[in-house]
Amino acid sequence: MTQKYVENPMVAWTEPKVVGECAGCGGDIIRGEDVYDSHLGLIHSRPECCMDFIANSSLCRVAGE
Ligand SMILES: [Zn+2]
Questions:
Q1: pTM for the model
Q2: Residue 54 Cα, ligand 1 centroid: separation in angstroms?
Q3: How far apart are CA 24 and CA 50, in angstroms?
């Protein structure tokens, strides 16, 4: 019989630790994920989240006009 190391069975079944909300997609940020820490909040280190973040926090307009 193989011995599995389980520190605490209760901990193993709990949800991942949510440490914040993504300022881009609005989803949960889980401890251990790669994020950008901006002055407006945390953003997942994913291209779509960065695009959403810029779209949410900026005004889209035509340059020079
Ligand atoms: Zn995100």
A1: 0.68
A2: 12
A3: 6
CA dist., res. 29 & res. 1, Å (int) = 38
The tens digit of pLDDT for each residue in 39-48 reads 889 999 999 9
For residue 63 the two structure tokens come to: 């340059």
What is the spatial distance between Cα 44 and Cα 41, in angstroms, rounded to a whole number? 10
User: 31 with 16: CB under 8 angstroms?
Assistant: yes
Q: How far, in Å, from the CA of 8 to the mean position of ligand 1?
A: 30
Q: Look up residue 62 and give its two tokens.
A: 């035509």
Confidence tier at 16 by pLDDT (50, 70, 90)? confident
| CA distances from residue 3 to 6, 43, 58 in whole angstroms, order as listed | 9, 39, 54
